[in-house]
Write a structure and sequence with these properties.
Chain A: It holds the Pfam family TPP_enzyme_N. Chain A: This is Sulfopyruvate decarboxylase subunit alpha. The complex is a heterodimer of chains A (166) and B (202). Chain A is an alpha/beta fold and 166 residues long. Chain A is 48% helix and 19% strand. Chain A has a 6-stranded parallel beta sheet, sandwiched between helices. In chain A, strand 3, helix 4 and strand 4 form a beta-alpha-beta unit. With 202 residues, chain B is an alpha/beta fold. Chain B has a single domain, classed as Rossmann fold, CATH 3.40.50. Chain B is 40% helix and 15% strand. Chain B has a 6-stranded parallel beta sheet, sandwiched between helices. The termini of chain B are far apart. Classes of the chains: A alpha/beta (166), B alpha/beta (202). At the A-B interface, strand 2, helix 3 and helix 4 of A face helix 3, helix 5 and helix 8 of B.
């Protein structure tokens, strides 16, 4: 990611009121994680798998603070169980920011499953999402995801793809 | 040692703490053992989510004591949270694991702790949680509750309890969605904050 894209993500998170980020690092967002760690207004929590991160974010919601789950899109699959239970069972929302591995242009065979499964899994969970491939749209898209989730009390997702992450 | 008796003892220590609760029969038991904590307890049916949610709540409200009432099945479902607690060292999180060595709510098939080898407290210590203990008596449970609720570091208490359920107790009628609203309104009231506020007029 370019520094300007990293800055746009952090501006969006701050405008949305996020003060806690749970993450499991990946390669496409590799410049984002240290920037989040270094930001004095954001507490980062490193998790052992993304489902754990989703559940922690759910707990943060209950505290009145705002959290984000930042991950590769493969983490969505690891998060399906807690997302289904919290979102569909209790109306506890999690906002996710994920890198779009496996879209057209992917050059790693192991990432192909991530691209094939991401959108169908989001659809199966009825999670609205936006794929952002233009840097200018990052900040506002993140803000709008929080607007939606804090009115629907349900999950939403932003996937960053294309030249934003490559 | 019966879980219900432990819950009654724990309830005697609680005032303004917030509780995240596991699934199964322990939900109805806690509803009856701690009636003064009903609004301050989130009753959820989420295997593997209980202690992570409690930690998220503890991270968001660092001045408030948070209690996680987890289970052997729930903790084994997501052991990674112990490593996260070991690294993050929350100062306000007390985790109780009801270890009845079975999946009680589906009739009692054994969990991994039933065979005398798997020790959740030892796993917790290995994950960096220094204060992690197993108790088998009500007296020891009560003493550890007092210590765990005052600790300035994560505290995990594994309570070895029988697989029995307290008979003739009142069932809780609300579902997860209603429970969330009750809990959130309680947090809003006691913290003087807004979590689920009004819609815009536009």
């Amino acid at each position: 990611m370019k520094q300007s894209a990293v800055d746009a993500v952090i501006r969006g998170l701050k405008r949305a009121g996020v003060s806690i980020v749970c993450y499991l690092p990946d390669s496409l967002f590799k410049e984002l994680y240290p920037a989040l760690d270094a930001d004095p207004e954001i507490r980062t929590i490193r998790v052992t798998n993304e489902g754990e991160g989703a559940a922690i974010c759910g707990g943060v919601f209950l505290s009145g603070k705002r959290a984000a789950l930042v991950m590769e899109n493969s983490g969505l699959r690891a998060s399906v169980e807690p997302l289904a239970r919290m979102g569909l069972g209790a109306g506890i929302p999690v906002v996710m920011l994920m890198s779009y591995r496996g879209e057209l242009g992917e050059n790693n065979w192991w990432a192909i499953p991530h691209g094939i499964t991401m959108e169908p899994v989001l659809d199966a969970l009825r999670i609205p999402y936006r794929v952002v491939r233009e840097e200018d749209a990052i900040e506002q898209s993140i803000v709008e995801a929080y607007d939606w989730s804090y009115n629907a009390y349900y999950h939403s997702a932003i996937a960053l793809g294309g030249s934003v992450v490559r | 040692m019966k879980r219900y008796d432990c819950m009654t003892a724990l309830a005697g220590h609680l005032r303004d703490e917030l509780v995240i609760l596991s699934l199964g029969a322990s939900v109805d038991e806690w509803y009856n053992a701690a009636p003064h904590m009903r609004e301050g307890s989130l009753f959820q049916q989420q295997l593997g989510c209980v202690t992570p949610q409690a930690f998220g709540l503890a991270a968001g409200l660092p001045h408030r004591r948070i209690v996680s009432l987890d289970t052997d099945g729930g903790m084994m479902f997501n052991l990674g949270i112990l490593a996260t607690l070991g690294n993050e060292q929350p100062k306000n999180l007390f985790v109780v694991v009801w270890d009845n060595e079975c999946y009680q709510s589906i009739g009692g098939p054994p969990t991994h702790t039933a065979f005398g080898r798997v020790d959740i407290a030892a796993i917790a210590r290995g994950a960096g949680i220094d204060k992690a203990y197993t108790v088998t008596t009500l007296e020891a449970f009560d003493a550890h509750c007092e210590a765990g609720l005052a600790a300035e570091e994560p505290y995990v208490l594994v309570a070895k309890v029988s697989g029995t359920v307290q008979p003739d107790i009142r069932r809780k009628h609300s579902d997860g969605r209603e429970d969330k609203y009750i809990f959130v309104r309680h947090v809003e009231k006691t913290e003087d904050i807004v979590i689920m506020g009004p819609s815009e007029h536009n």
